[in-house]
UniProtKB/TrEMBL annotation:
Domain RDD: 31-152
Topology of this chain in the membrane: Multi-pass membrane protein
Principal subcellular localization: membrane
Ranges that cross the membrane: 40-60, 72-90, 120-140
Cited PANTHER family: PROLINE-RICH ANTIGEN HOMOLOG-RELATED (PTHR36115)
Name of the featured protein: RDD family membrane protein
Upper classification of the organism: Bacteria, Pseudomonadati, Campylobacterota, Epsilonproteobacteria, Campylobacterales
GO terms for cellular component: plasma membrane
Subcellular location: Cell membrane
Keywords: Cell membrane, Membrane, Transmembrane, Transmembrane helix
InterPro entries found in the cross-reference section: Pra-immunoreactive, RDD
Organism, as annotated: Halarcobacter bivalviorum
Pfam families, alphabetized: RDD
Length: 161
């Protein structure tokens, strides 16, 4: 970075070619955090809430039984994760991602993520959601990547319309 700045300052590289390189590099920049949070909320209402309703009222005897059962809560989280992982590997987008025109891609292939990578990404998400520091990591990073983005080498990008 410093040598590129030095070359531009000394006139060895034109500013126009440098900005073109930056545009190409930024074409796979992370999607805005606000869009990612809103997409997560949409996914929670469209996918998780029906799962919880079915579990609470059709499988169990009501909210008291559901609240008293750690197993039921973990099972609903795993079913939600299974559905989310399927969306990631089949389409690269969940319903919330589609609503906000964002997409999950693999950093190396620039294509949809694989099943092991998507599964690992969801498991890391569960861990990061339980810790405050890891949940707020993208607010402190310039590239706005979450811990699951970094560890699975994936990126949530703005999709083309």
């Amino acid at each position: 970075m410093a040598s590129r700045w030095r070359d531009i300052k000394q006139g060895n590289v034109s500013k126009e070619s440098s900005s073109i390189n930056e545009e190409i590099k930024d074409s796979f920049a992370s999607a805005p955090i606000g869009h990612r949070i809103k997409a997560f909320i949409v996914d929670m209402f469209m996918i998780m809430m029906p799962i919880m309703y079915i579990t609470t009222y059709l499988i169990m005897d009501g909210k008291d039984d559901f609240q008293g059962s750690d197993e039921a809560r973990w099972i609903t989280a795993l079913i939600f994760g299974f559905i989310i992982v399927l969306f990631w590997i089949i389409k690269g987008q969940t319903p919330g991602y589609k609503a906000y025109s964002i997409k999950l891609i693999d950093d190396t292939t620039k294509e949809k993520v694989s099943l092991p990578k998507a599964t690992l990404r969801y498991l890391i998400f569960l861990i990061s959601a339980t810790t405050i520091i890891l949940a707020f990591l993208p607010f402190f990073r310039k590239d706005k990547k979450t811990i699951q983005d970094l560890l699975t080498k994936s990126t949530v990008i703005q999709a083309e319309n």
